[in-house]
């Protein structure tokens, strides 16, 4: 800043001169000025604007929202500059085609970013409508654990009655497995899934190998806790998971021809634990004891709790336009236009509950989908032949 301005009562300090030695010998430069006030005047407000710089100076407007008297002195920091190319600036009435191009790219980028799977047989207009719908609802998807939702609709309670605490020693691990465990713990700490603990309860941890996508892929592991001793003294919850035959009867009677399958991103981790009983989820590692802040995989009542939560969230839609089986949601409709409406209804409910989906495991507007070991289509419901082959080639003991 190159001059002194004083403000007594008005919220508008007016225009002041911004200057930067780096631009002193560069006339007619175009820059973006972004507010960047010194600490002693940080209550002032400025806009992010495009300005022309002459002799290293440009006019910059400042507002004072405090209602207090503020004096600005020479050489105070008020804004920082980013030089831009004038050729990248277009008049609003000349850039319709550019705007449309940006809009199309935005939709394509969201689809690519999330790894969304949609029906390849959709025509261009249908694909555009579906992509726009998914883009508008980008915040219902979690690209990774850092975008994971956390609902306030249910707090999972670990009810052990009068049972005394159970304690366990950590299982032995190789140095490589200890390093892998540390990685999982760091990720969960960073994303508010777990916290350090001094709980009298503790269970050991295990690492489960994930199936490789190909032989050259890096081996990945799933972090889990062996809650068998805790589960033995946990009172069982009373909430039923839907009968599969009821699920398929509902789909068959709906005369649906188009389906979407939605999968929650780490559904258990989106359900907070009851503050009074979360210490019972504690697990022991070579680094010490931690406890979950959110519902953990392996707790005896976790699947039913998640079923109860999602059923509650989609209560008005369940058995009508959608079906809930733990964290798998099936949406079924009689035509494409109706399906878009049904998708939006489900998205709205999930967003209200702050639940997020795993985009890579969702399938949209399909004529045929795999659901609960079966294949659903307009031609009816049949057993997934891949599951049939597994049974067919299973080796049985001969007695």
Q: What is the name of the CATH class of the largest domain?
A: Alpha Beta
CATH topology of the largest domain, what is it called? Alpha-Beta Plaits
Coarse morphology: globular
**Fraction of residues in H or I helices:** 25-40%
Q: So how many helices?
A: 8
Say which CATH homologous superfamily of the largest domain is assigned: Reverse transcriptase/Diguanylate cyclase domain
N-to-C series of helices and strands = EEEEEEEEHEHHEEEHHEEEHEEHEEEEH
β-sheet strand percentage: 15-25%
- Unreliable residue stretches: 2-10, 98-105
Terminal Cα span: 92 Å
InterPro entries: DNA/RNA_pol_sf, Rev_trsase/Diguanyl_cyclase, RNA-dir_DNA_polymerase, RT_dom
Protein name: Transposon Ty3-G Gag-Pol polyprotein,Transposon Ty3-I Gag-Pol polyprotein
Pfam family, one: RVT_1
Task: Please specify the SSE layout and strand pairing.
Elements: E1 5-7, E2 12-19, E3 29-35, E4 45-46, E5 49-53, E6 57-63, E7 70-72, E8 79-83, H1 96-114, E9 117-118, H2 124-136, H3 175-190, E10 194-196, E11 203-209, E12 221-225, H4 228-232, H5 244-254, E13 258-263, E14 283-285, E15 288-292, H6 302-313, E16 322-325, E17 328-333, H7 336-352, E18 363-366, E19 368-371, E20 374-377, E21 380-383, H8 385-392
Helix pairs in contact: 1-2
Organism: Mytilus edulis
InterPro entries: DNA/RNA_pol_sf, Rev_trsase/Diguanyl_cyclase, RNA-dir_DNA_polymerase, RT_dom
Protein name: Transposon Ty3-G Gag-Pol polyprotein,Transposon Ty3-I Gag-Pol polyprotein
């Amino acid at each position: 800043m190159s001059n002194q301005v004083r403000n007594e009562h008005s919220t508008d300090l007016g225009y002041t001169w911004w200057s930067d030695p780096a631009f002193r010998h560069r006339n007619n430069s175009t820059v973006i000025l972004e507010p960047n006030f010194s600490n002693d005047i940080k209550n002032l407000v400025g806009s992010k604007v495009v300005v022309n710089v002459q002799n290293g100076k440009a006019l910059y407007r400042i507002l004072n929202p405090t209602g207090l008297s503020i004096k600005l002195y020479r050489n105070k920091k008020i804004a920082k500059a980013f030089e831009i190319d004038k050729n990248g600036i277009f008049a609003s009435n000349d850039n319709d085609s550019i705007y449309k191009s940006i809009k199309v790219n935005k939709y394509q980028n969201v689809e690519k970013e999330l790894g969304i799977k949609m029906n390849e047989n959709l025509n261009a207009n249908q694909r555009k409508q579906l992509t726009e719908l998914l883009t508008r609802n980008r915040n219902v998807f979690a690209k990774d654990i850092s975008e994971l939702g956390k609902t306030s609709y249910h707090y999972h309670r670990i009810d052990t009655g009068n049972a005394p605490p159970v304690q366990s020693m950590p299982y032995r691990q190789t140095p490589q497995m200890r390093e892998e465990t540390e990685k999982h713990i760091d990720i969960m700490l960073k994303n508010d899934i777990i916290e350090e603990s001094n709980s009298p309860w503790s269970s050991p941890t295990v690492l489960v190998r994930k199936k490789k996508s190909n032989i050259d892929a890096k081996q990945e592991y799933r972090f889990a806790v062996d809650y068998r001793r805790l589960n033995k003294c946990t009172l069982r919850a009373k909430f039923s998971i839907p009968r599969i035959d009821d699920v398929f009867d509902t789909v068959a009677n709906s005369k649906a021809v188009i389906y979407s399958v939605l999968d929650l991103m780490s559904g258990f981790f989106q359900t907070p634990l009851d503050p009074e009983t979360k210490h019972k989820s504690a697990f022991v590692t070579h680094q010490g004891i931690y406890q979950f802040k959110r519902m953990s995989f392996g707790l005896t009542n976790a699947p039913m709790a998640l079923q109860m939560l999602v059923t509650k969230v989609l209560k008005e839609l369940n058995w009508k336009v959608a079906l809930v089986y733990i964290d798998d949601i099936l949406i079924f409709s009689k035509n494409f236009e109706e399906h878009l409406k049904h998708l939006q209804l489900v998205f709205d409910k999930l967003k209200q509950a702050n639940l997020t989906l795993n985009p890579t495991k969702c399938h949209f507007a399909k004529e045929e989908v795999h659901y609960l070991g079966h294949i659903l289509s307009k031609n009816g419901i049949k057993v997934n032949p891949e599951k049939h082959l597994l049974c067919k080639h299973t080796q049985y003991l001969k007695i």
